[in-house]
Amino acid sequence: MRLNRRDHRRWRKVAATTATALLGAGLAVSPGLTGTAAAAGSTVKVNQVAYVPGVPKQATVVTSAGTQQTWTLKNSAGAAVATGQTTVKGADALSGDTVHTADFSSYDTAGTGYTLSVGGETSYPFDISADPLKKLRYDALAFYYHQRSGIPIEAQHVGSAYARPAGHLNVSPNQGDNNVPCRTSCGYTLDVRGGWYDAGDHGKYVVNGGISAWQLLDEYERAVSFGDKAALGDGRLNIPEKSNGVPDILDEARWEVDFLLKMQAPGGLVHHKVADAAWTGLPTIPHQDSQPRQLAPVSTAATLNTAAVAAQCARLWKTIDAAFADRCLTAAEKAYTAAKANPALYAPASDGTGSGPYNDNKVTDEFYWAAAELYLTTGKSAYRSDLTGSPLYRGAGLSTRGFDWAEVGALGDISLAVVPSDLPAADIAATRSKIASTADGLLTQMAGQGYPAPFVSTDGAYYWGSNGIIGNNGVLLALAHDFTGQAKYRNGVYAVMDYFLGRNPLNQSYVSGYGEQAMRNAHHRFWANQLDGSLPITPPGVLSGGPNSHLDDPTAAARLSGCKPQKCYLDDINAYSVNEVTVNWNAPLAWLANWAAEKSGSAPPADTTPPTVPGKPAASAVTSTGVTLTWTASADQESGVAGYDVYRGSTKIASTTAGTYQVTGLTPETSYTFSVVARNGAGLASERSAGTEVTTSGTPADTPPTAPGTPQASGVTTTGLKLTWTAATDDQGVAGYDVYQGSTKIASTTAATYQVTGLTPDTSYTFSVEARDTAGQTSPRSGSVTVRTEAGSQTGTCKVTYAANSWGNGMSVNVSLTNTGTSAVSGWTLKWAFGDPGQKITQFWSAEVVQSGTDVTARNLAWNGNLAPGQSTNFGFNGTHNGANPSPAAFTVNGSACVPG
Questions:
Q1: Rounded Cα gap, residues 869 and 94, in angstroms
Q2: What global pTM score does this model have?
Q3: I need a surface site. Which of 177, 377, 564, 827 has the fewest CB within 10 A?
Q4: Is the Cβ–Cβ distance between 6 and 347 less than 8 Å?
Q5: What's the CA gap between 696 and 666, in Å, rounded?
Q6: Torsions phi, psi of 790, nearest 5?
Q7: d(CA 44, CA 34)
Q8: What pLDDT score does 80 carry?
Q9: How far apart are CA 466 and CA 457, in angstroms?
Q10: Of 264, 288, 289, nearest in space to 276 by CA
Q11: Residues annotated as part of the active site
């Protein structure tokens, strides 16, 4: 049973009622497990399973130390193989811990049994290897065979401990699923054998089964377009259908899809669930369930779930089993038609006896998802109209709070972004861009956490099934990488796996069978070893629901009162609101494990983004010969900050991995200016920080010059420009100036001007200046100016179509650029001038657009810069105007005139 996160306060009453019923049915608090939660183990929290070579490797260290601490990485023999300094992170609200981060990414030697030590504390052991992930992607999928209803679970597939008879086939004491009546009279019964048990109970729910089946099918469909579908092929899973010529992941998903089709009523609507009339106790093996089985009433949400998944089924099985594909499509279209005729049939919130209610009174997202899947499968104009007319179209419904069974609009977005279609390229690009921008928001959130996990809630609390939301947000990070190739998203996915596998406040691997402290006692009626030693523990590869601050069961409430959000968890079979397992939480685990295993064999993308500028150094402990410098750390989401170079004037005097440095060997009574440059793991350097002037003890005989004015650029050409700045002043006279391009000195001059030559066309450069006095002292660095050289011309011709939609004082513009020449364009810059000064751009997509006065410059993004002869690309923008909104009269591309279309 799961609670509806849309109205958690209302559901707490229902949960308490359900808890009372469960306790009455035989639930008991586990012997010896009273009081508070177990201790969280070592203060050094790591991924207890494996860090993948070539990927950032970070741990969280609980410590109140205000200064950096030394970490040591040891191999299985106990020998130190790497050492470094932690980064102070500080107080972490979600855990209540004060933490540091230990980054040992520079060590990349594959092996087993590594440990990380900080301050006398040692982590759990872990590997540096991709092999565990390659195993986990199949164990996570094997969960679904374990959960099958209506078929014996055989020892040859799962081992003797997990084998069991078929459940719910009308073999006493079962009352079975082959002739199930409606709870309220409907005039028919349905044969609904098969499908997956939803969770630890014996209910089978269409809305939860829908998203779960979709996600397994999407895992395969995404691999077809962007990944390695062979890894999901036939013979990969130990299931009865292996070696039948069909990818095993599709065989497993079909077991649930077939059940969804059986839940369709004669008129096309779909029953919300089939479940027991009353809750059964723990443990109850499926074939021992004696409760009557009942069909819940039909619902619009269940009908649209079936329409969406059945449409997806039709396109995937079209070349595998045409008859099954036809059956799926017929059911999908029938369901969609029925849902449109009955748009407000909602499952009641009160239906929580014997099964979870899964109530959902907002189905705009289900309609959008179903229309997307039906259009992608059929191409029919009616579905296209419903799809493009939805307020969720082009990713408008995506947000960092994530998606789940009750919020399924993102499923439509993902299919539209992955599956080829005839929709406008600009619309697909906008959807992919929204997925990437949502992923950026998740990365920003993770960067502020001590234990990074992409989870957002309105009140700061974690709710029921938090791990499922974290997993689904990990899917958005993975797709952002698929669409952009940027390493920061790839790194974010592996950080999610780190959190699941032990880098969290409890040192808890939430995946059974993986890690030194792995979940064992899931809330489940068969995997109930905690209550009956003859029954098994949870099999490998199952994801727990995870922390839930609302403590919606008696066991969690009794033992976790006052817990911080990320610490509201118990590995206890009775703590069902934190330790239940479900088909819709294991689906993102399987998806992510497969993606992470696939990417583990590829080289990380090239990092082209330098670190952010470090903070201006702060000086302390100034003596006659030294000073301590401290600065705010840089950030680098792709390769990570590798270290800092410390400069005295224009001379580099030291390198350090810390955010502080002790300068020695200075001259008494002398002024110095210090600044800092950051370097990342790819060797890229940041801009120089602002300079800090420090005077050693005593009164200096000479003061350094003042900072020159910020340079002004003029006479910009394709290869050069002129810099001019306001002169510095000095008590003994200014001797000259050093001109810097970025952090590199390119010239010295005695005048307050300099002609720069030898530049590259259509390229941005940043310049600044330092002054020198007659004593050799240097001034603080001037402000910097960034200038882009002219683009020049390129052989070839082009056409621009500028389509503006105006209303009131607003506009929305789509721009199409076509290469009409005979040679390919590799990177494009499109320029035009607005005809009215009131025309202002406020938002843009699928290009980088900059406006200066009436002049506009648009440049390609990474994915749409190459145009073969005859090829087109689209981008667009929104804006405002003062009543006049004329189209531009002329365009240039890469400096050459372009024909308006």
A1: 54
A2: 0.70
A3: 827
A4: no
A5: 8
A6: -65, 150
A7: 26
A8: 95
A9: 10
A10: 289
A11: 201, 523, 571, 580
Distance separating alpha carbons of residues 733 and 792, to the nearest angstrom: 42
Task: Report how far residue 652's alpha carbon sits from residue 644's, in angstroms, rounded to the nearest whole number.
Answer: 10
pLDDT tens digit sequence for 319-331:
999 999 999 999 9
The span from the CA of 215 to the CA of 69, in Å, is 43
Asked whether 195 and 166 are in contact (CB, 8 A), the reply is no
Q: Please give the radius of gyration of the chain, using alpha carbons only, rounded to the nearest integer.
A: 31
- Check residue 35 and give its pLDDT: 31
- Cite the DSSP H helix spans in 539-604: 554-559, 576-579, 583-599
Assigned token pair, 602: 């590829």
Strands of 32-175 (E only): list them.
44-45, 50-51, 58-62, 70-74, 80-85, 87-91, 98-103, 111-118, 121-122, 126-128
CB 200 within 8 A of CB 299: no
Helix, strand, or coil (residue 82): strand
Q: For 663-726, give the DSSP string.
A: E--PPTT-EEEEEEEEEETTS-BPPPPPPEEEE-SS--SSPPPPPPPPPEEES--SS-EEEE-P
Q: How far apart are the first and last CA of the chain?
A: 58
The pLDDT of 220-233, averaged and rounded, is 94
Span 448-463, average pLDDT: 90
Residue 715 — pLDDT band, cuts 50, 70, 90? confident
State residue 804 phi and psi, 5-degree precision. -110, 135
Among the residue ranges 289-298, 533-542, 698-707, the one predicted with the least confidence is 698-707
Q: Which amino acid is at 421?
A: S
Rounded to whole angstroms, the Cα distance separating 867 from 681 reads 32
With a cut of 60, say whether residue 189 has pLDDT above it: yes
Cα 666 to Cα 622, 649, 663, 829, distances in angstroms: 10, 13, 8, 50
Mean pLDDT confidence for 608-634:
92
Beta strand extents in 290-427 (DSSP E only): 293-295, 298-299
Going edge to edge, which strands form the sheet with 98-103? Answer: 44-45, 58-62, 98-103, 87-91
Q: If residue 142 lies in a helix (H) or strand (E), which one and from where to where?
A: helix 131-146
pLDDT at 19 over 60: no
Please write the tens of the pLDDT for every residue from 287-309. 999 999 999 999 999 999 999 99
CA angle (203, 205, 206) in 5-degree steps: 155
Q: How far is CA 44 from CA 58, 62, 101, 502, 567, in A?
A: 10, 7, 10, 10, 16
Sorting pLDDT into bands at 50, 70 and 90, what band is 603? Answer: low
Closest CA to 392 of 413, 373, 419, 423: 413
> What whole-number distance in Å separates Cα of residue 340 and Cα of residue 125?
55
What is the DSSP code string of 115-137? EEEETTEEPPPEEE-SHHHHHHH
Task: Look at residues 451, 578, 589, 403 and name the one whose alpha carbon lies nearest to residue 94.
Answer: 451
Task: For residue 210, report the phi and psi dihedrals to the nearest 5 degrees.
Answer: -65, -55
Predicted local distance difference test score (pLDDT) of residue 605: 64
Indicate if the pLDDT at residue 730 is higher than 70. yes
Amino acid of residue 482: D
Contacts made by residues 739-744, CB under 8 angstroms, sequence distance 24+: 739/767, 739/769, 740/650, 740/688, 740/767, 740/768, 740/769, 740/770, 740/781, 741/765, 741/766, 741/767, 742/685, 742/687, 742/766, 743/677, 743/685, 743/686, 743/687, 743/688
DSSP H or E segment with residue 874: strand 872-880
User: Using one digit for the tens of pLDDT, what is the confidence trace for 786-812?
Assistant: 988 887 544 447 999 999 888 788 888
Query: Could you tell me the two tokens for 228?
Result: 């390695």
Q: In which residue are the tokens 């607003």 written?
A: 810
